[in-house]
Amino acid sequence: MALQASSEAPTARIYTEKFKISIYLWMLARHIQLNRPMGLSRSAILEIVGLEGGGLTELRLFHEAIRYGMLRREEKGFYLTDYEVADTLVHRIPIGIVEGQYIDHSAESKLWREALRLRHAWADFVKWVRAGMSPTEIPLESIAVVESYGIKPFVEVKAPNGQMVYTTQLKDIYLITRRLSNGPFVYCIDFPEQGQGAKLCAVKKKVLRLYLVPQP
Fold first, then answer.
1. Integer Cα distance of 183 and 74 in angstroms
2. pTM, whole model, 2 decimals?
3. Residues 6+ apart with CB under 8 A from 20
4. Among candidates 2, 18, 16, 26, which has minimal Cα distance to 208?
5. What phi and psi values does residue 74 have, to the nearest 5 degrees?
6. Closest Cα partner for 59 from 75, 47, 42?
7. d(CA 121, CA 153)
8. CA angle, corner 184, sides to 45 and 176, nearest 5?
9. CATH fold of 20-108, please?
10. What distance lies between CA 202 and its chain's CA centroid?
11. Domain ranges for the chain
12. CA distance 168 to 183
C-alpha cells in the first residue's frame, strides 16, 4: 500500500537567539566597527572597554567575542578582528552592568555613553509598543537614536504564512513588533527570503508560530 503524502507543510525549526549582549561586548564591537583594526592586543581591548584585567568580566568578554567570531586568537595576548561580526553585534542591544565592577571612564568613555544611550532608547521604544503604539505619543527622539545604529523599526515583511507583518530589523534579525518585551532572548526561524543568514524572530514562541502556518 502506497504511503500517503502529508497534507501539512513541514514546520520550520524554532531556536532561541540572543539579541541583547554585554555592554562591554557592544563597546568592543562598536570600536571595531568605527576603526576597523586588523588586530588588537589584550591590553588595548581592556583599555577600549575600560576594564581592569583578571576579573570574571574580562573572561566573559573574551569568551563571547571569540564565540561570536569577532575575535580570533593569533598569538598569546593578541587577537585578529572580524569587522562583519562586529558590525552585526552593534545592531544588538547592550545590557548588563556588573555591580562593583571598576569602569575607567577616561578610556573610550564615549563608547560607554553610546551604549547606555542605545539601551535607554530601545527601552523607550519597547515601552511605547507595549502601551499600544499611540501615534500621538511616538518616541521620536528614541527612535532616531535606535536608527542611528542601523536598527530599523517599522520594516514590513511577508511572513512564511503569506501575511504581512511589521518588524524591527536588527541587521540579520527581523523582530516581530507584536508583544515586545525587555527579555534578552527571542525565538527565531531561518528567513532566507530576506537574505543569507536572516532570521524572523519574536519575543514569544506562540507569536512566531502565528506567522508560520497559513490560516485556514
1. 35
2. 0.87
3. 92, 93, 94, 95, 183, 184, 185
4. 16
5. -95, -45
6. 42
7. 12
8. 120
9. Arc Repressor Mutant, subunit A (1.10.10)
10. 13
11. 20-108
12. 15
Coil, strand or helix at 176? strand
DSSP 60: H
The Cα-based distances of 155 to 103, 136, 140 in angstroms read 37, 20, 16
| Greatest CA separation for the chain | 76
Give the phi and the psi of residue 183 in degrees, each rounded to 5.
-70, 160
16 vs 117: CA distance, rounded Å = 26
pLDDT, tens digit (0-9, with 9 covering 90-100), for 136-158: 899 999 999 999 999 999 999 99
| Residue 106 cell numbers, joined | 577616561
Nearest alpha carbon to residue 73 among 50, 45, 54: 45
Kindly indicate the confidence band of residue 97, based on its pLDDT and cuts at 50, 70 and 90: low
